[in-house]
Design goal:
Blueprint: E1 8-13, H1 19-22, H2 24-31, E2 34-37, H3 53-63, E3 72-76, H4 77-81, H5 95-101, H6 103-111, E4 117-120, H7 139-152, H8 154-160, H9 171-196, E5 202-207, H10 215-229, E6 236-240, H11 245-257, E7 263-268, H12 285-296, E8 299-300, E9 309-314, H13 324-334, H14 336-340, E10 344-348, H15 357-365, E11 375-377, H16 382-412, H17 417-459, H18 475-497, E12 502-506, E13 513-520, E14 524-526, E15 536-538, E16 541-547
Parallel strand pairs: 1-2, 1-3, 3-4, 4-5, 5-6, 7-8, 7-9, 9-10, 10-11
Antiparallel strand pairs: 12-13, 13-16, 14-15
């Protein structure tokens, strides 16, 4: 039983099989009572094993065999063309083969012309790493080449970085790098043409790791020129990001589908730091926030009274920052009222690859009720955190409105008992999905990335030289240590800050009840790519329906 007049379905092909791409979008969909239909996991590949683009194309065309098979298709062209993000950095696929794999878009539009297609195609990071091409061993030299090629012209850069000069960048690596860059750039240009031909309805071109100057900026300019030439600038966006794109495109579709445009007021922990450029990004953090707001289908407002939510951003920090602790605590105090009225989301981009320990500790010590937060995010790059926080927070607003509609209908409609229980169960499921995503963000972004991952690296430091190193041989040992420590830390956090809290009230008057957070079921932990960079965490949350204490 759905809270909506009918079941809404979205067919989703993710960037790869990592939890942020494959699992979190499903929680977003459950939160607003949509169904996300994804391919069998085996078709997505895993880490160094590419996905299966030809089989994915067959799967997609089979899914849209009926005219009303779905309300939208959200497609990663990197998966459909290369077999995923990591595979997109390999030189094994030719340009001709890559272009041929885009033909599935025309087939999908022919079969189901009424289903909108939201697509993403990543602009290659400045210095890609690929285990099949050897480029990962020369990332620093490739970054220097990118800078030189932008400033002095490509031929000069090639002369400086050749085998003869002994710079450490072999000619074969440079040739492979240029080949991959050019192939991926041509695919992005072709995606813009597919957009102009109405075979794509919205195109996101997120920029993977880059700096303010380099070859990615040259490619962005060319892509933007082509977008303007084909007059599709209202349906295409170039901006920092990558791993969050499945979540942001889903949020964008839901907002368009429901004719909503949430108004977002940004509040900075340190306003003076809002123009800083975060690591791995090519523009100021304020520009990245504005772009991600646009991607999810929202709008910025300076007026708190007009805002649907407040986004508190902890900006990139620097070593000489002063009074950070007082700024953080003052910001948390300032948003306390908003958290209980219009709603607050917290986005922590102080450092990459993990939440700011100082911010989270202050949050836990504050008067803020964590259960009332719309979202929390502090993982990987700034754009990743901002986009996922906005997707979660804005869709949480819709879930809150669904709850209000449920109460109103219950007040003025004489539901049959079975119908009421079915709708109540759907409402509880949407609450559970939100709480799972909120608590998961705290577990992953803070407990794991900030607290436990450095400890685990230290324990394995003699055998593991980097967080992205392959842990195949050490996996059982790392898995056991991580499972024990992270499960216990998660249980402690739940008991102290979530257990027993009321997350929502349903009904009116004497029939009002609280949905209360109960036990956290067994926490299951996995390192999905056999490396320390990401973790997969699964758990179940028990919710109980309790009579409102004020009525007893």
């Amino acid at each position: 039983m759905t809270l909506r007049h009918r079941l809404h379905q979205v067919i989703y092909v993710p960037l790869d099989d990592r939890p942020v791409n494959a699992a979190r979008p499903h929680l977003l969909a459950q939160m607003v009572d949509y169904e996300l239909i994804a391919p069998p996991a085996i078709l997505l590949g895993r880490y160094r094993t590419p996905g299966r683009p030809e089989e994915l194309a067959d799967w997609l065309t089979a899914q849209v065999d009926e005219p009303h098979a779905a309300d939208c298709l959200i497609l990663s062209l990197d998966m459909l063309v290369y077999g995923g993000l990591v595979a997109s950095r390999s030189s094994q696929l030719s340009l001709e083969e890559a272009i041929a794999r885009l033909e599935v878009l025309a087939q999908l539009k022919k079969q189901a012309p009424g289903i909108p297609i939201y697509a993403s195609s990543v602009i290659l990071r400045e210095a890609p790493d690929s285990c099949t091409s050897g480029m990962d061993e020369h990332r620093q030299e490739l970054q220097q080449y990118s800078q030189l090629a932008t400033e002095a012209g490509r031929s000069d850069a090639e002369n400086q970085y050749s085998e003869e000069t002994g710079t450490g960048l072999p000619a074969a690596i440079l040739r492979r790098y240029r080949q991959v860059r050019e192939r991926n750039h041509q695919i992005n240009l072709r995606a813009i043409e597919e957009l102009a031909a109405e075979r794509i309805d919205f195109l996101a071109l997120p920029q993977d790791d880059a700096r303010p100057a380099g070859l990615p900026q040259v490619e962005q300019a060319r892509l933007q020129d082509r977008i303007e030439q084909l007059a599709v600038d209202e349906r295409a966006m170039i901006y920092p990001g990558t791993d969050e794109v499945g979540m942001t495109l889903f949020a964008r579709f839901v907002h368009r589908h429901m004719e909503k445009q949430p108004a977002i007021k940004v509040q900075w922990v340190d306003p003076a730091a809002s123009e800083r450029v975060a690591p791995y990004e090519d523009r100021s953090i304020s520009e990245t926030v504005a772009a991600q707001v646009d991607v999810v289908g929202g709008r910025l407002t300076q007026q708190a009274a007009q805002a649907d939510l407040v986004l508190l951003v902890n900006p990139p920090k620097e070593s000489d920052d002063e009074d950070r602790e007082s700024l953080i605590r003052k910001s948390l105090t300032d948003i306390e009222q908003a958290a209980s009225t219009r709603g607050v989301a917290i986005c922590d981009v102080a450092t990459p690859n993990g939440a700011d320990d100082e911010l989270v500790n202050a949050l836990l010590d504050s008067e803020l009720n964590l259960v009332e937060l719309l979202a929390f995010s502090g993982w990987n790059t700034a754009a990743n955190s901002i986009g996922s926080a906005l997707a979660h927070a804005t869709l949480r607003l819709i879930a809150r409105q669904d709850k209000g509609a449920f109460d109103l209908a219950h007040l003025f409609t004489n539901f049959a008992p079975m119908r009421y229980l079915q709708l109540l169960n759907s409402l509880i499921n949407t609450e559970r999905a939100h709480l799972q995503l909120l608590f998961l963000s705290l577990i992953d972004d803070w407990l794991y990335q900030t607290r436990l991952r450095p400890q685990l690296k230290e324990e394995l430091h003699q055998l593991v030289d980097d967080g992205s190193s392959d842990l195949t041989e050490l996996y059982p040992r790392a898995q056991q240590v991580l499972s024990n420590q992270l499960a216990q830390a998660a249980a402690d956090l739940w008991m102290k800050h979530f257990w027993g809290k009321s997350c929502v009230q349903v009904g009116e008057g004497e029939e009002r009840n609280d949905i209360v957070l109960a036990e956290l079921e067994e926490t299951r932990v996995e390192l999905p790519w056999r490396r320390l960079f990401e973790v997969a965490v699964e758990f179940d949350i028990n919710l109980e329906l309790v009579a409102d204490k004020k009525q007893s």
